[in-house]
Specification:
heterodimer; A: about 240 residues; alpha/beta; six-stranded mixed beta sheet; five-stranded antiparallel beta sheet; 11 strands; B: about 220 residues; mainly alpha; MetI-like fold; globular
Chain lengths: ~240, ~220
């Protein structure tokens, strides 16, 4: 069974996450929704960083998690790339040290550095470079492990509009080059429309397909969104 | 020989510090970063020396390290002879007494570390052990150094527990704190003054260093 197949439930205080979705291999799925809807928790469960109360996660035929069968693959064995929100780089290492941290092939890191234009800052520490450069490095770090599935948690939320546009173009290009499957968490509708093949609105821990329709109608931006799909450079953040 | 107890105290404090940093760092990692059954009980057990009088710790150690005690008989089988009233004996005693003073600050340092750094290492394929060496330790250097200094100072001043386990054998277990006590007991106040004076600048300098390291850690 190719692609990502997820069926999860988890109680987090008042929030009860209960979702089921699938995403074909090589495509990008965007989880979109308001803050506190449980999007990050869902990808943390896919990564193995949090344990669901019930359900199953399968990727390309491999079971990452199955509550009924008692299978729980550790994050180390899932072969994923994970880019955290707000650039989680190792502060004691240079940008190159970070990117090559778990790299399978160092020449690939050089290639990724060139692709993302990080060559001149290779010896700088994360606190010595801009947010955009840190985020590029975080993507390099994840890509250098040759992941089968890339998880991105609001990767551009702390960046300015220009850097965000540039970085998402770069990400889209490299994703297509490597035919990666991507799960992308965002609260930016335009970004989701631009990046994703499948959009999944998550509200209060549940998939709510009416939500996107509702907020776009309510804010009177339906036409603008349609335009955004045709003109990806248009940015519209919610 | 007058000031040999000072050398012995410094040697004891240094060895205890080295031993404890090696033992306490992985223990603190397991306590700070993982959840496991019985963790609360182990945590309380490790902190017991803070709550117990040094003489009580000394008494229990005397039983454990004695010829019929578990550690004592094991030592006898291994090296022949008793560990009591030897320098090795007071190292064991001092390390037990100072263990919580090493664990607590290192644990606090690990707890302050952004948990996403560990999670990031896990997702990148590193085992918890590799994460400890490649991520946790390099990002906790200041906290561990501050803990080492606190342990060093605490071991430098240890008295009751050392007297119980090591007695007062000149050149072997008679450390400065015991020498000061004996000097006062025998009205040799000048000697007591001189030995005590040696502690003051050392302790003050190291405490300044701890403050500096703690500030750097916080920033």
């Amino acid at each position: 069974m190719k692609g990502l197949h997820v069926r999860l439930s988890k109680r987090l205080g008042k929030l009860e996450i209960d979702v089921a979705f699938s995403c074909p291999e090589g495509s990008t799925l965007a989880l979109i929704g308001p803050s506190g809807a449980g999007k990050t928790t869902i990808i943390r469960m896919v990564a193995g960083l949090e344990r669901p109360d019930d359900g199953a996660i399968l990727f390309n035929g491999e079971t990452f998690f199955d509550q009924e069968k008692g299978i729980r693959l550790s994050p180390q064995k899932r072969g994923l790339g994970y880019v955290f929100q707000d650039y989680t780089l190792f502060p004691h290492l240079s940008l190159y040290g970070n990117a090559a941290f778990a790299a399978k092939d160092r020449t690939e890191v050089e290639g990724l550095f060139r692709f993302f234009g990080l060559g001149p800052m290779r010896d700088r520490k994360p606190h010595q470079v801009s947010g955009g450069e840190r985020q590029r490095c975080a993507i390099c770090q994840a890509m250098a492990t040759r992941p089968r599935l890339l998880l991105l948690d609001e990767p551009f939320s702390a960046l300015d509009v220009v850097t965000r546009r540039k970085l998402r173009d770069e990400l889209k290009k490299i994703k297509e080059e490597r035919r990666l499957s991507v799960v992308y968490v965002t609260h930016d509708v335009t970004e989701a429309l631009y990046m994703a093949d499948v959009i999944l609105p998550v509200v209060d821990g549940k998939i709510d397909r009416d939500w996107l329709e509702e907020i776009t109608s309510a804010s009177g931006t339906r036409n603008l969104l349609a335009k955004a799909v045709r003109e990806p450079k248009l940015s519209l953040a919610f | 020989m007058e000031f040999f107890p000072l050398y012995l105290s410094a040697k004891l404090a240094l060895i205890t510090t080295l031993v404890l940093i090696v033992i306490a760092s992985p223990l603190a990692y397991v306590l700070a970063c993982f959840t496991w059954p019985g963790k609360t009980f182990v945590d309380a057990l490790i902190n017991l020396p803070i709550a117990l009088p040094p003489t009580v710790i000394g008494f229990y150690l005397l039983c454990l390290l004695g010829p019929r005690g578990t550690i004592g008989s094991f030592w006898d089988n291994l090296f022949g002879g008793s560990i009591l009233f030897t320098f090795a004996g007071i190292v064991v005693a001092c390390a037990t007494y100072s263990l919580p003073f090493a664990i607590q600050p290192i644990k606090a340092t690990f707890e302050k570390l952004d948990p996403r750094l560990r999670e990031s290492a896990f997702v990148l394929g590193l085992s918890p052990l590799a994460t400890f060496f490649r991520v946790v330790l390099p990002n906790s250097k200041n906290g561990i150094a501050a803990a080492a200094i606190l342990v060093f100072l605490h071991s430098l001043g240890a008295f009751g527990v050392i007297l119980m386990v090591g007695g007062s054998i000149p050149g072997e277990t008679k450390v400065a704190s015991i020498a000061i006590y004996e000097a006062v007991e025998s009205f040799q106040y000048e000697k007591a003054w001189l030995l005590s004076l040696a502690f003051l600048p050392v302790s003050y300098f190291f405490l300044l260093l701890v403050n500096r390291l703690t500030r750097r850690e916080a920033s």
